[in-house]
Structures are given as structure tokens and as C-alpha cells.
Amino acid sequence: MSPTVLEEMNSTEPLSDEEIVRRILDGETALFELIMRRYNQRLYRVARAILRDDAEAEDVMQDAYVRAYGHLSQFAGRSQFATWLTRIAIHEALARVQRRKKTDQLGANEWNDGEGEMNIAATALNPEEQLSASELGRALESAILSIPEQYRLVLMMRDVEQLSTTETATALDLTEENVKVRLHRARAMVRKNLFAQAGSEAPRAFGFMGERCDCVVARVMAKIADLRA
Q1: CA torsion through residues 201, 154, 218, 97, sign
Q2: Among 7-11, 30-34, 103-107, whose mean pLDDT is lowest?
């Protein structure tokens, strides 16, 4: 981590995303690390919700960051930078799903986007059981990953990543009413009692910190260096 990035991370008055973008475009490339460390958790959770695979989610994060860096000059400020970045990650993840479908027809039934609820009893633990916080977190992750993508993604962004209805609607190109409807259905699928027991554990589910975060940052910064060269 560069001294400049470390200083900014410890600052009591952190730079806005827009200011960071401006300075990156002015030549302070190292500050892109600050963007990644600020949004690694969100992008991982979004990609994981779509792909349901840790390794692929990390690959999508890297591709999204590299694409975002390459198009920073095109960020027009019509939406929040975080929303713009999230949309890139979503598009990368969905593109990967489409490629997967083309090469593996056997997986077609797995990506069910239908309206019907799925039976998650086999993957979610009984909410009445006495579970430790970590066990409950794993049960919650399993229950969320069991539901169809269109609901899973809204649930991940609203209840796990804790974005607002407006932010979620903008990132997914949905109306706010549609987000509310999907969120209601998603919560029903995951079972209200299980989610209620999770409580404060929900924001800690699907964690992406520490060494894994550092590895993604290092790989992306290396690719950016190659692009500059």
C-alpha cells in the first residue's frame, strides 16, 4: 500500500470518490487502490450473488476494476461513482453467466429466473435450532444463494450490502417499486424467521477482507501498470 493511499485511508476527512477519480485522471494512479479497498466488499457480494462461486466472483471483480479504470474518463457523474462501478461489476458477472450457459447446457436449469419460490429447506438450517453466530452466518449465506438470481441480487444489495432502495434500483435498472416487490419475495424465500435470527450478522455475511482483498488489489494494480506501460 502506497504512503498516499495509507494516509488517505487514515484521514478523518476522506476524499470523495469524484475527487479520487479526478486525481487518478490527473496522473495519481496509485489512488485507484483506494477505490478498490473502498468497494471490494460490495463488488464481491454482488458478483457472488450472481455467480455463486468465490473464484469466479474474484475474477469478475478484477475484470470490473480494470474496465472501470480504462473508462474513468467516461464517468460523467450522472449517477454516484459507486453506482457506476457496481453496474460494471454486474454486467461483467452477467456476461460470465451467459458464457457459462453457452458452454454448459447442463447448467441451464440451475439459473432459474422464474417467479416461483424455491424450496430452500434442504440448504437452510432450521431457524429454531440453536446456532452460533458463525453457523447462523453460513446458514444465511446458503439460504440466500438458494433463491433465484433476480431476487438474490436485490436481497444482497439491500439487506446484506445495505444499499438504499434508490441506489439498488439505479444499479439494477429497475423501478423502486420493482425493487421493493423483489425484496419482499426474496425475504419470504429465505424465511423470515431465519433472517430475523441473523440480525446483526447479515452485514458480516459474504465477507471479503484481509489477504483476499489484498490479492485482488495487487493483481488489478499490476494490470493497470501494464496498461500504462
Answers
A1: positive
A2: 103-107
pTM above 0.85, yes or no: no
d(CA 40, CA 65): 10
Cα separation, 76 vs 9, in Å, equals 25
What CATH topology corresponds to 3-228? Answer: Rna Polymerase Sigma Factor; Chain: A (1.10.1740)
Cα 151 to chain centroid distance, Å, stands at 14
How many residues would you count in the chain? Answer: 229
Q: How far apart are CA 181 and CA 201, in angstroms?
A: 24
Give residue limits of the domains in the chain: 3-228
Q: How confident is the model at residue 10 (pLDDT cuts 50, 70, 90)?
A: low
Nearest alpha-carbon partner for 176 in 154, 205, 143? 154
Per-residue pLDDT of 197-208, as tens digits, reads 555 566 666 777
User: Hey, what's the cell of 101?
Assistant: 450457459
Q: Which three three-digit cell numbers place residue 67? A: 474496465
Q: Which of 44, 2, 17 is nearest to 205 (CA)?
A: 44
| DSSP summary character for residue 157 | I
* Range 124-153 average pLDDT: 67
Whether residue 14 has pLDDT greater than 90: no
Q: What value, to the nearest 5°, has the Cα angle with vertex 79 and ends 73 and 82?
A: 80
CA-based end-to-end distance of the chain: 20
Extract the C-alpha cell encoding 183: 425484496
